[in-house]
Amino acid sequence: MDTGRNLVVAWTVSSSDPALRQTWVSASSAASGWTTWTAPVQVSDGSTATGDATNVFPWVKAGGPGRADAVWYGSNLQVDPSSHNNQAWNVFMSQVVFPTSASGAVTGAAPSRQLVKVTPHPMHFDDVCLMGTGCIESQGNRNLADFFEVNIDGTGAAEVVYDDTSNKLVQPPNTCTVQVADHCGAGVITVARQNGGPGLFGTRVSGPSNAPTSGLSDSSGDALYPVIGGANQSGFDVRSSQLSLSSDGKTLNVTVQAADLGRPLSALGAVPGATNVQYVTRWQMGNTVYYAAMENTAANQPIFYAGKAQTIDLCSVSACFPHVITYPEPGAGPTFTGVAETGSVSCPATGPCTLTISVKTADVGSPTSTSLLESVGAYSLAAAIQEGAEDNATAQSDTVPLEIDGVCCFNFRASKK
Q1: Taking the CB of residue 300, how many other CB atoms lie within 10 A of it?
Q2: 344-387 pLDDT, tens per residue?
Q3: Distance CA 293, CA 122 (A)
Q4: Where are the domains of the chain?
Q5: CA dihedral angle for residue 62, residue 66, residue 69, residue 70, rounded to 10 degrees
Q6: Residue 22, class by beta-carbon neighbours within 10 Å (0-12 exposed, 13-18 middle, 19+ buried)?
Q7: pLDDT tens digits, residue range 241-264?
Q8: CB of 202 within 8 A of CB of 67?
Q9: Contact in structure between 127 and 83 (CB atoms under 8 Å)
Q10: β-pairing, 124-125 with 149-152?
Q11: Which of 162, 178, 244, 340 has most Cβ atoms within 10 angstroms of its Cβ?
């Protein structure tokens, strides 16, 4: 319902003809007792050229009188969403503005529509199984679950929450080639915010750009544990994250500033059960998630490493899928897949401390000066065991690292330094 007491609905037609699986909207005013509705208007374009050929999972958020944002997942092929055709899915949004009377009631006239693609790259591949528990019989993928919604901030800017499973992660020895009982794609919950154009209160909105930059800062004093009513934990308080590429292109320099990296014993003492302090910087390049990390213990002998993120998959009525993303250390055994890197920790008397990891580019997909590293974020974690030691049993019991603080996210194109 918008502020003019108009109800706005959005739906996607369920049809055996994929071309008819489109998203529609309609509105009704309080003046009619919400019994008279405007003629349905299609807000998706049904085009394979734009990648919006077939739609699922619509959601809508209303704002000022007659104004609403409708969102949905759209694929690039006009095929059954539950079929296996290597479809590429994106998030789309249409802002609709219904004509209103002086009192704010919709008049019944057709709305204006403005369609945009929200996602910077496809956020899912292949099927989105719509057969419920029957998906197990068709090897159907339900990894997107139901983490999808559009809301607005105080200025009327759209904020879209969606699952990004484009990383194609799956727990070895399973592969994405044959997905019989384990389905690829770890659901990374992602938020996209509108940073330009008209908002839902009728005024233009603004916000940070997604243009590549070298880093991002974070406010101090927000590493609270416990989250509700807890104190700031300086040993986990992330202050900034930065990337740069060496002049010869062989080293990706990963830098994180934190309030205090010199007293791991004190940091661990603040989080019951924790034995390891971890600082993880994560990004996605192409369809692969990479990381660089530092891990420390009470002995204060930090190690530095990098590699490809891994996953632990758990099962439900619809087979198995990634539940826990891990950032393994170097070590013996097949699950310790990290590669040792050179790093240092410097803590001046006045703070903050600086963590620097010199990552061999060959260990993280060989980024060049033209590579785009997306959604770069740095996080502080408290862990009870090393990430390489995590397995299905520890994931099932929720013995996984606890995020205390972080700074996210920025895109980086490797300017050399």
Answers
A1: 13
A2: 999 999 989 999 999 999 999 999 999 999 999 999 999 999 99
A3: 27
A4: 6-193, 215-413
A5: 100
A6: buried
A7: 999 999 999 999 999 999 999 999
A8: yes
A9: yes
A10: unpaired
A11: 162
